[in-house]
Amino acid sequence: MSAEAADPGAPLRRRSRPRIDLRRLGRVALRGPVSRDRLPDAIGHVAEAHRAHHPDADLTILHRAYVLAESSHRGQMRKSGEPYITHPLAVTLILAELGAETTTLTASLLHDTVEDTEVTLDQVREQFGDEVCYLVDGVTKLEKVDYGAAAEPETFRKMLVATGNDVRVMSIKLADRLHNMRTLGVMRPEKQARIAKVTRDVLIPLAERLGVQALKTELEDLVFAILHPEEYADTRALIAAAAGPDAPLDTIADDVRGTLRDAGITAEVLIRPRHFVSVHRVRGKRGELRGTDFGRLLVLVTEDADCYAVLGELHTCFTPVISEFKDFIAAPKFNLYQSLHTAVVGPGGAVAEVLIRTHRMHKVAEAGVVALGNPYAQDHAATPQSEPSDERADPTRPGWLSRLLDWQESATDPDTFWTTLRDDLAQDREITVFRTDGGTLGLPAGASCVDAAYAQYGDRAHTSIGARVNGRLATLSTVLSDGDTVQLLLAQDTASGPSPDWLDHARTPTARIAITGWLTDHPDEAKPTPSTMTSVDAGGPGPAELAAPERDAQATAPTRTRSGPRATGVVVDGPDAPVRLAGCCTPVPPDELTGFVVRGGTVTVHRRECPAVAAMQEIGRAPVGARWADVEGRESDAGCRVTLVAESFGRPRLLADLTEAIATAEAAIVSATVEPPSEQRVRHTYTLQLPDAAGLPALMRAMREVAGVYDVSRAQHPAPAG
User: What confidence score (pLDDT) does residue 416 get?
Assistant: First the structure.
């Protein structure tokens, strides 16, 4: 299978440069500096690659940086036996081929001078300016003699903080790690594995998030070869066996070229071989590989509109696989990536994946933030009227980086930082949710309302009691989806704090660190867990009352007066019989009533809308007429008994506040039950004795106004069989 199939009608593309012979360059470097009027041969390849992207670049500063790097590293050798200068040269060449601008290349040549030679940061600043000095400092490791075992995590923390101010720091680090991984074979196997694991857990996710696919894919393959040598060898053999002049993708590529040519669309159609890890993943997903699984078609056009024109032609002239279509042009990925993805069925049923993008999109897809050049250069001519601002517009400061920089300040312990960093970088997809005030929150996929609360409110989120998601009440554990609208609900009690259960639903380090910190600082004040939620804080019924069965809520007042008012204030039709109000719905005036004769001849009176009424009728029980006696017939001191159900979010002192509201309404608690929390929701059932039924609406309003309570209703659950 050819690595590249160019359109015969398109201009010839520059072929990939052969791998540079670094040993030869090392010998050249050892000869020392050359005359001022020409560049040293050792840096000539860097200059050529740089000029390919930046034809007007001033190479003088590169010359000076090389001279300083070569002279300061002279006499140092790499473990591979090469002169040390070959390493900064190789790192700089990687960045030059990606299109990095001159300042980045200058810092790349000098990136190890402060760490490994007598050169100081002050000297770098004096000779090359503040920007180059900042970049060199950003990638300079911290000394183990000063930091001990914390040197590696603290070095990464330092680099990430520096990246927050200038993303070019991480570009240099990624290129540095790539060259080190290429030459890792001289290390002991255990050291190779350790470096490969850090690369897998930290550097590769960072390369993905910064959109530098060219570095990410090669790093993945190098890590794959070290950590999984047998699977790597197997995959390598599969790719070699699939290569050849009659590869299925070649035929489909020719058909696509013809289709686009006939449609008058100028496009370049290439075959992009999958790298080793990609082939391995496809094999794991599909089992047996098809001939078209070893690569994808890449269609490059000039304008964005041409991308959709190509898509239309392909879906018209070929059978599309609709489930494979994705539009990353209209909705770019969080790492700047833009492209149309589709798949079409070619001759003989072969399915080919197709990527459609402009040349500019392709450059960004390969080089990510490196392709932005110097993102911090101010274009004064473009914005002459712009107001001065303390905040620099930075397209390379995406939400994930801002969140990382926020939470790392709280992770003062190196082990916590290192573990949390790996966990954070393992979340490779982002969602955007909307706030009701018009703002947005960028969160990792799988984030919950807990994460949204801490992202929006910081430590104030400790008082969260729930949320509304797309207008509907939701618990804090609710997982959010891309495009959701979320409104966080906070308790008025600012002294309340989070529950340990929140850690089960927190996906972001910001939330987890904040929750863990509060729980550590307040070991005796955490919100009750499910095992303690049935205990009462202050002012409520005791444990015995909470455990009382519901039958205790049923008022029984036997009477022998036929068709007259009972002690319950209810008149029933039929024979003399004891009358009781049903505990399942606890009717009060002016509820409409109906009754049923149950075991023992007692007439149980229900509200007509009670679910138990339908259940009784379904089993053949005949209803008995029932109505409230007139006012004169009621016993004025009997009051009324009612069962209310309060639905709430769990928080400290909730029971105390509810019982206080009940007592203020002059109602007495006959019994109460609190169900164990379910997804941070708590259900309270109270049977109450009121002086008068007329006070019921006011009581229910008072209970609803308690913070955390989102609904209060009359009990509607079926009564036990009589």
Answer: 77
